[in-house]
Amino acid sequence: MNDALKATLVAALKSWIESANDPASDFPIQNLPFGIFSDAINAQPRAGVAIGDWIVDLSVLEDARLIDGHGTFNATRLNDFIALGQQTWRDVRIALSALLAQGNATLRDDADLRRRALVPRKDATMHLPVEIPGYTDFYSSREHATNVGSMFRDPKNALLPNWSELPVGYNGRASSVVVSGTKVRRPNGQIKLPNDERPVFSACRKLDIELETGFIVGKGNALGEPIPCEDAEAHIFGMVLLNDWSARDIQQWEYVPLGPFNSKGFATTISPWIITLDALEPFRTATPAQEPQPLAYLRHEGDHAFDIELEVTLRPEGAQRATTISRTNFRLMYWSMAQQLAHHTVGGCNTRVGDLMGSGTISGPTPDSCGSLLESTWNGQRPIELEEGGERAFLLDGDEITLRGWCQGEGYRVGFGECAGEILPARG
Ligand code: CA
């Protein structure tokens, strides 16, 4: 890592934008995540970076020749910017860090430019940050795979023999990935009730969440050319929070032999801000020990997990307070993002800029650290009590689920913002 990049990550760095210096802000000057936004004054979606309570309009700064995005900022998605490559993302981030740092007067003291370049986040509408050519979902938490295997198959053989040899995954549905805030309709589908011979067609009765993160591919690979594990992180632009909504009753009937289909394909929600791997660098840490040692193509030296605190809250319709239903950490994931990408491409599968790769449900070892209601309520048998009374086994119409994530630094935190969605009733 070069000195200019290191300088953007210093814990003591402050911004002249005061709200960015609040230790509770998700968006201090050390973060600088990228997204696509619009506002009442300019309804055209365009690229921005979050800083404190504000969004920096990147196209305005480019017009003022303060940053260089090669004309890609005035776009409804970040794909063209991301395709410019890692050096350009870094150069833009380094330039922004300097412009926003305490003591830099260029933007701070230019009232006209400041008025045009800074948009209050509360007035902005966030859009899907990237066009997603493909969405893949992995299954890389040992605790989650063990819990689901116990419930859906057999507690004695919960973890299948392939699980500790390869990052299990499947090709998901990119077309139904939506941005945080989009309402999610309860799906209808085939459900097989235990005492009936044939399935019924019904609204899902076991609607669930999956707490995940996702990474966005920043540099693709050609068909037939695998990405080596050691190089894989250079192919990642950044990370988002991801809720892989799941219809458990539909899933349990349909998933044999090819895996989930309608139980997952109705919606996947992601957070709007993409946190770059550069911003996450200070929070790099070791993955859990891997036993047996993975095959050679899945090996990498050094630390490849990130210390990201995660939390899920549920707020019933009309409730004042939300209930925290899970707290866990991304660092518990058995397989790293690099190993997932290396495995995904090892047979020659190509990836493209903007591809979304879900981590798999992130569960810890205890019921309050499970990333799905399926696990925390043990398939509905042990409902969760809610703060304002009542309980939940699975989601009811009107429930709002919010995922949050952050890396805790010294006096600041690199946050992901929110990944939220409310449940609408099924179509009649
Ligand atoms: Ca999933």
From TrEMBL:
Q: What is its EC number?
A: 3.7.1.2
Which controlled-vocabulary keywords does the entry list?
Answer: Calcium, Hydrolase, Magnesium, Metal-binding, Phenylalanine catabolism, Tyrosine catabolism
For this UniProt entry, the molecular function terms from Gene Ontology, in alphabetical order, are: fumarylacetoacetase activity; metal ion binding
Q: Which pathway does UniProt place it in?
A: Amino-acid degradation; L-phenylalanine degradation; acetoacetate and fumarate from L-phenylalanine: step 6/6
* A family per Pfam: FAA_hydrolase_N
UniProt cofactor(s):
Mg(2+); Ca(2+)
**Positions of the catalytic residues:** H144
* UniProt binding sites for Mg(2+): D244, K264, T268
Q: Which SUPFAM superfamilies match?
A: FAH (SSF56529), Fumarylacetoacetate hydrolase, FAH, N-terminal domain (SSF63433)
Q: Which residues bind substrate?
A: Y139, R153, Q251, Y255, T361
Residues reported to bind Ca(2+): D137, E210, E212, D244
Top EC group? hydrolase
Q: Which family does it belong to?
A: Belongs to the FAH family.
Name of this protein: fumarylacetoacetase
Give the organism's phylogenetic lineage.
Bacteria, Pseudomonadati, Pseudomonadota, Betaproteobacteria, Burkholderiales
